[in-house]
Amino acid sequence: MTTQQPAAGTARQSAWPDISVNGGRAVGVDGGVDTRAPLTATVTVPGDKSITHRALLSSLITESPVEVRNANPGGAVRALLDPLRLLGFSVRWSGGSLIVEPDAAPEGGEVGESGEPVLDVGGSSAAGRLLIGVLAGKGISAIVDGDAVLRQRPMEWVVEPLRELGARIDYLGAAGRLPVAVRGPVRRSVPITLRVGSAQARSAVLLAAVGAGLPVEIGHPVRSRDHTERLLAALGADLVEDEQLLTYRGGALKALPVIEVPNDPSLAAYPAAAHLLWGDGSTLRLPGVCLNPTRLGFFEVLRKAGAAIRYEDRAVVAGEQIGTIVVEGGLDGVGPFAVEDEQTFHSLIDEAPLLAAVGTRLPGSSRIGASAELVFKETNRLLTTQEMLRGFGADVTVSDTSIRVEGGAPLTAATVDGFGDHRIAMTAVTLGCALPGRTTVLGGACHTTSYPGFAEDMAAIGADIERDGE
User: Is the pLDDT confidence value at 331 over 70?
Assistant: First the structure.
């Protein structure tokens, strides 16, 4: 395989405490009353990370204040807050909301050789890529940089199409990687054809065009998450979409003073998976979750394989479908699955390691194909998923484009590496919940990147989780 090694994530790993989990759903007796997990449990997961990023950037696009309610509180979102402050926006938390207001005095910070502010987005690829697009659209000169791991992730997906639109963007280090300096705006309307299905790439180009009021056609190979399109349409952008072509025709933008963020389906997948793995006959309810079809791949693949998953209480908020995900029973009668097309893969791209973990407990052979983009995540998730699951004894093989799991191998609790990657670490903890004995995930507390309350929410449905040193 011509892919980076699993150790790509270890640059962050030493900063995170380990997490341990004792397998099985917690059962006890308190005052003579059985306190086993309730027959119906309800968990409210945090706001969606992707939508929070886009809602925050809407203030920069419209140059208007916005209150982002139910904002995701994780490190990936916080990585965008200081850059906004350096650009002259005040940002503050008020309860569960982030309040963003323009026209504040820019906070001091590092500047580049030409005097541009250096906007450090830490390890968040979404913050970095989307920010590059908005800067190019608004004609704001700045340097976008990140941590050592993010500096290894590809930025040419965003930079090259923005250059085609006339933006001046310079690589200050390795070609195709951060740091980059945005020094001139997009200024010409030409058709753009993206070579990757990444929603971040498509969103960065679209944000640039809308920020500049520049009509554009964007060809893309697959329909992936479309939160940017939904939000921009709510702001007044005139968009026309089909499966592989997105056209922005202009449209006067309006401010949205309040944006409600639904709960994150990618985060809801972890308690849902634990519930299925336990399989004790009880019911789990996950209310207020984003039911955008481009995000429901994890649930849809398992539902079609036979899992008892349904959606209730449907509504539409700020252009996004929301509702309650209901998970009943376990994996009895659930068969193997096969993900072969890119659209399905992109609808579960963040949950691919977790889906593979569930596959280890299903009969037969399960496969996640069309997954080459996992190489470019916080780690090479093809390899880190394989190594983590093999640590439990799973029969897993990967290629450059797929993960194959042979179900039925005897799994045991183990000490496994989280590789500093929040998706790998949370998957390992979730699988450990279902295995007798004690599982330790090295650096497992990196879950705070997207899900600070992960351990508490898992404990609320019966997991026995400990953070190292507590």
Answer: yes
350 is catalytic: yes
Distance between CA atoms of 379 and 412, rounded to whole angstroms?
24
Catalytic annotation, pick one of 145, 226, 350, 457: 350
How confident is the model at residue 11, as a pLDDT?
40
Name which of 398, 452, 412, 444 is nearest 425 in CA terms: 444
Q: Does the pLDDT of residue 28 top 90, yes or no?
A: no
Angle (nearest 5°) at CA 204 between 200 and 205: 125
Q: Which two tokens stand for residue 435?
A: 């295995």
Among 104-113, 207-216, 337-346, the least confident range: 104-113
Q: Dihedral through CA 282, CA 283, CA 284, CA 290, nearest 10? A: 150
Q: CA triplet 453, 439, 458: central angle to 5 degrees?
A: 25
Distances (CA, A) of 452 to 18, 84, 122, 394: 14, 22, 17, 28
DSSP 327-369: EES-STT----EE-SHHHHHTTGGGHHHHHHHHTTSSSEEEE-
* Residue entry with tokens 């009969």: 363
**Rounded distance between C-alpha atoms, residue 98 and residue 92, angstroms:** 6
Helix-then-strand count for the chain, H and E: 15, 26
In angstroms, how far is CA 423 from the centroid of its own chain? 9
C-alpha to C-alpha distance for 142 and 146, rounded to whole angstroms: 13
- For residue 226, the tally of other CB atoms under 10 A from its CB is 21
Residue type, 208: A
| The model's pTM | 0.94
Best CA proximity match to 378, nearest among 438, 314, 432, 422: 422
Lowest mean pLDDT, pick from 416-425, 434-443, 461-470: 461-470
pLDDT tens for 279-311 read 988 999 999 999 999 999 999 999 999 999 999
Mean pLDDT over residues 329-344, rounded? 96
Q: Name the nearest CA neighbour of 305 among 359, 375, 246, 260.
A: 359
> Mean pLDDT across the chain, nearest whole number?
93
